[in-house]
Model the fold of this input.
Amino acid sequence: MKKSLPLHLGLIALLIALQFILPVYHHGVLARVMVMATYAMGYNIMFGYTGLLSLGHAMFFAAGMYGMGLSVTQLDMSIGPAFGMGILASLLFSLLVGLLALRTIGVAFMIVTLMFSQTIFLTILYFGSVTRGDEGFVIQQSVRQIAGLDLSDPTIRYFAALTLFTTVLLGILWLVRAPTGRVLIAIRENEERAKMLGYDTWRHKLAAVVMSGTVSGAAGAAYGVLFGYVGASFAQVPYSIFPLLWVLLGGAGTVIGPFIGTLFMFYLIDLSSGITDAYMLVVGVVLVLLTMFARNGLMGIVRERWAKWLP
Amino acid sequence: MVNKALPTRRKILTGMAAVGAATALPDVTRFAHAGSHSAPIKIGFQVHRTGIGAAYGRWYERTTNAAAKVINDAGGINGRPIEIVAEDDGTDPKRGAEVLEKFANQHGCDIAYGTLFSHVVIGSAPRAAELKMPYFVVSEGHHVASGMLNRYTLQPGITDVKSQVQAMAPWVASNLGKKITMIYPDFAFGHNHRDFFSEAIEAQGGEVVAKIAIPPTEASFTKYFPKIPRDTEVIYHVMVGPSVLTFVKELGEFFGPSAPAIFGFVDSLEAVDFATPGLEFLEGTHFWEGMPRYVQPNQTEYDKFYRAAIGIDENGASVDDPKDVSTYAHMFGCWETLFTIKDGMEAAGYKGIEDRTKLIEAVEAITDMPESNEHPQGAKLFNGKTHQVFGPQYISKVEGGKLMVKHTTSLEDGFYPDEVDYTTQSF
Amino acid sequence: MAAVNLLSTRDLSRNFGGLQAVQNVDFDLPQGEIRALIGPNGAGKTTFVSMLCGRIPASSGTVTFQGQDVTTLPAHKRISLGMAYTFQITSIFGNLTVFENVALAVQHRLGRATKQLQTEVTTALTRVGLDRRADQVAGDLAYGHQRLLEIAMGLGQEPKLLILDEPTQGLSDGEISEFIQLIREVSSNTTVLLIEHNINVVMALADRITVLNFGEIIAEGTPDEIHANPAVQAAYLGG
Amino acid sequence: MEFGPHLMLAMLEGLVQASVLTLTALGLSLVFGVMRVVNVAHGEFFMLGAVLAWWITSMLGGPAAVGFIAALIVAPLLVGLLAGAADWLILRRIDYDPERTIVATIGLLYIIQQVTLMTYGPDAHPVAPPFNTRLALPWFEWGENGFQMYWPWGLSTTSYKLFVIVAAIVTLIGVWLLMAKTKIGLILRATQLDSEIAQAFGIPVERIYALVFGMGAALAALGAVLVVPIQQAHYLMGADPLLLSFIVVIIGGLGSLRGTVVAAVLIGMSDGIISVFFTPTLAKMLATLLVAMVLVYRPQGLFGAKAA
Done:
C-alpha cells in the first residue's frame, strides 16, 4: 500500500517534466492522451472496479461535451462556467441512466447502455438546428480563455489537461483505498456476498455509475474546451468501444492502467496508420490477443508478476 | 480469401500505391538546377482512406497524386518539387485534428490540404489556426464562407453548397416545376440543402411542399416515400453514403410509370455506374453536376488533359476498370486547389513556413481563375474575404444512360452577400 | 437470564411456483441460545434461514428481530441490524486476500476507523486460526480454510445473531473440534442458529434443536428429546 | 398518400425487413442459447455474406439467377466455415468466458471489417436480383356506391421482395425441423440445457460449439445474400444488423428461438409502422428508446424465462 502513492506521484512528476523536454508533436499528443485517459479512468470506475460493463459510455462523454459546448453557443457562457455546466450535465444524466440501467444486469445492462447511447446520438442529430448535427461546431479560440490564459496555447493546454488528469488520478487512487472503493471491488468480486455483509450494493453501483459518468463527461467537456470542437461523432459507437479497449489494454482495475492503455493504443494507431490504411485491423488483432494471452492487461501483468500491491 | 478473388481491385490499389510512391519521392535530379531550394515543399494531405468517406477519399487521392505529378513535371513550385504527405483521417474529426498536428509538428509540412466531409473540416480547422498552418479544404461545405472557421482555412477549389443550391433554383423553377418535395439526409449537409434551396426556390415563386429527412444509417427508403404529397411537381433528392443506390432504385420502384419530374444532386450517385440495373427509370431525369462526368460533345482541351492525367475514360470511370466509377463531380476540387496553392506560393515568393501568412494573403488576393488546364471545371471567381471560390454549375439530363449537360449556370446565379470578412482577422 | 426472543417468525411461508418450500412456520429463538436446525435434504432449511436474513422474500408471514418487524427489510438492512449469514456453498471474495475479505466484514461496522480495523480483523482471523495466512489470496486457500474464512467474516461482523449454513461441511475432524470450541466461545455474546448435518456437532453444541421436514416444523426440543422423538426418526428413515 | 395504403405499404416494407432480421437474429440467438456468449462480430458475418454474394455473382457472370443461386449456397457456407475456424482458434481458447468473448468478438469485428476494406474496397456494390418486377397493389374502400377496389398511387412492391419473405419462412421451417426432429438438433438442445452433462454423455461439446458458431454466422450470411439485391454490399453495413439482432434477441428473451422470431417480426414491423406517424429520425429515436425501456422494465425479455 505504501508503495503505490510514490509511484503515482512519480508518474505525475514525470508528466510535468515531459512538458519541458518533449518534441512539439509528442507534446501535443500527450495533452490529448491525458484527456482521453481521463475518459478511460472514468470508464474504469465502472468496468474495472465495480464490474459493470457498459457499451454506451460515449453518451456520458457527449453529455459533458455538449453540456459545455451548448452553454457557450446557446447561453453565451464564458468557458469556465460552461465547463462546469458540462460536468453538471453529465452528472445528472449519469444519475438518470444509472437509475434505469441498473435495473438490469449482465448482457442486458450492456445492451441497455448501448441503446441509450444510440438514442443520445440520434437526439443530437434530431436537434440539428441547435447542435449542427453530425457536423458539430467550433468553440472559437477567442472564447477559450480562462483568467487571461489562452487555453489553445500548447503549454497552457498541456497543463490544463495535466490538472484534470492529476485530479482524477489522485481522486481514484483515494477512492479505491477508501471504504467505498473497497465495497465497489467487493461488488465486482461477489455482489451477493457483499450484500450479505450488510452493504447496500445497489446504492454503491449507482454511485459508481454517477462517478464514472461524471468523470467521462468532464473529459468530454475538456476535449471541447482544449481542442475547440464539439461533434456528434464522439457520441457514436466507436467512442464507446475505445475506453473499453484502452482499459483492457492498460489493465482493468488498476489506477494507471487506463493511461498506459490510452497512450499505447494511440501510438499503435499513429504508427500503424503509416504502414497500412486498415490500422483498425491492428486494434482488432490487439483486442483478440489481449483476451487470449493477457486478459488483465499490461498493468495486470505487472501486478501479477512484480507488484501485488498495485491498486 | 477475398482478395484473391478481386484482381481488378488489387491492381488499382497497387497501381495507386505506385503513383503515390512516384510523387512521394520526386526525381530530385530534375530539380538540381534549383540549388539550395530543391528541398521539396511538403503538402500534408488529409484523406478519407477509411470510414464513411473512403469512396470519395480514394479518388481524391488519385486526383491529388496526378496533379502533384503534373506540377512536378513542370518544374514544381518556385523551382522546388512538391511532396504529398498523405495521412488517413478515418473520416473522424478527432483523428483529423491529430493528423493536422502530425503534418505541422512531425512531418514539418508547409501547409495542409484535402478532406471532404464537413465534420472533419470543422473538427480540424481550429487546430490549423492554432498551428498557424494554412489549411486548404475541398469540402463544398458552407462552413468556410459562413464565417464559422478562421483565417487559416480556405476553400479555393470547389464551390460551396449554398452557392450550388442557389444556382439551381431558377432553372428548376422555370423548367421542371414550382411545387417541390425535398428528400435529403438528416444531418448538417442535408439541412444546408433544405434551408438554402427552400429560400432560393421561394425567391423564384416556387415552394417546397414537403421536406423528408432520412436518418443517416437508413438502408431502406420505400416506407418514407408515401410522405411525398400528390401535388408534387418536382422531387429534389440529395443522398450520400453507401445506400444511395438503394434509395434511387426504390424511388423508381415506388413511382413506377407515373413519376413527377425528378431533380437530384449527383452526390446521390457519385461513384455509381448509371448502367447499373434498376436505374433505368432515371432516364430523362435531371442532375446537378459539379463537373460533367461523361465526355460532352463540346469537350474542352482542358477536360481532355485532366482526364488523361488521372486516367479516367469518357464515362468518368477508371481506364483500367470501367466498372470503377469516379467521384467526378467533386474531385476536380483537389486538382484545382493544388494549382491555386501553386499560384499563391509563386505570387508570395514562398520560401518556407515563415512565409505562411504571405501565402494566405497572396491567395486572398486572387480573384479570377480563367478556365485552363489548371481549372478544367470552368472559369471561377475567388472571394478573398470569405475564402470561398465560386464556379459554374452544370445541370445534366440522363439520356441513354449518360448525363448530358443541358444548362450551365452563370457565376452570378451562385453569388450571395458575404457573411464574413476573414481578411480583417489577425493571423 | 430471562429468555428474551431475539428472533421469531409467524406463519412464515414460501412457495416456488406450486412447490411449498416452507409453510406456516412459527419459530422462536431466545437470546444467547445455540439452536440447531436439522432435517432431511430438501426440507427447506436453507430457504427458511434465507427468509430470516432477507436473501429470499417471504410469500407470507412475518419475521421479527429484536422486537422489530423486519419482514419487508432488504437483506443489507437486516444485516446492519446485527444478523450475519455464512453461505452453505462457500462464498468469499476469491481474488482478494484473506485480510481484505474479513476487513470488508469489519469495515461495515466500523466505517472509517482504520486503526481499529487492523486489530479487529487480526483478532477475527486469530480466532479461526487463519492469522498467519492474512496476506494469502483467499481463492488459493484449501477448502476447509475457506469455510473458516467464512466464519471469520461472520465473527468480524460481531453479530447479535450468527446464522451458519452447514459450516463444518468439508472440515477435517481436527478442524471440527476447533470449530465446536470456537462456537462455544462465540455463543457467550452471540445467538447462534446453525444448519448442520453432522449429528455429533449438533449434539455437542445445540442447546435446542428444531427439526424441519417438507417445510414444516415437526419437532423442537433438547437434543435428548429430539433423539427420542419417533416423528423425527420416521422423517429421516422415510426421507 | 391516404392513411390506409400508407400503413399497408409500411407494413409490407416492415415485413421484408423482418424476414431478413429474423434470420440474422436467429443466428445470434442460436449462438447465445447454446454457447451462452454474445457474438459482437455477428454483423460482420452478415456483411461478409453480402460481400461474398457480390464477389460470386460478379465472378460467375452469366444470368443473374445463376450467380444468385450460387451465392445463396456458397456464401453462407464460406462464412460458416470462417466463423467455425474463429471459434476454434479464439473462443475455445478463452473457454467461452462471457465478457472476454465479447471483447474478443469486438476484435474480430474490426479484423473482418478492415480486411474487407483492404480487399473489397470502400465502395458499395449492387447484386442484380434474379427477378424483380414491380407489382402495383390494389386497395379496397367503402365508397358511396358500395365496396370498391382501386390502385392507389405508389402502393406497390416487387416480386423479389415477396420472394425474400417466402425464403425467410422456408429457412425458418428448416431450422425448426433441424432443431426439433434431427439427432443433431437433439444434441444441440442437450448442450443448451447443460454443457457439462452433455459432455458427460460423450457429446463433443467443443465441436458442437464450433458448429453452432458457424451455423449462427451462416444464418446471418444467408440473410445478407437475400438482402443484397435490395441493398448493396458495403464494408460498413454490419453495424445496423448487429444492433437490431441484439435488440431482437434480448426482447425475444435470450436463447429463446420462438421469442426471437416473434420479436424480429415485431421490431421489423414497428420500424416500418412508427415511420408512418413520425419524422424518420424521431421514429428511430423512439424505437431505440422504446426497446431500451422494455429491457429496463423486463430484463428477461418479453418471452424469456426469468432465469435468462
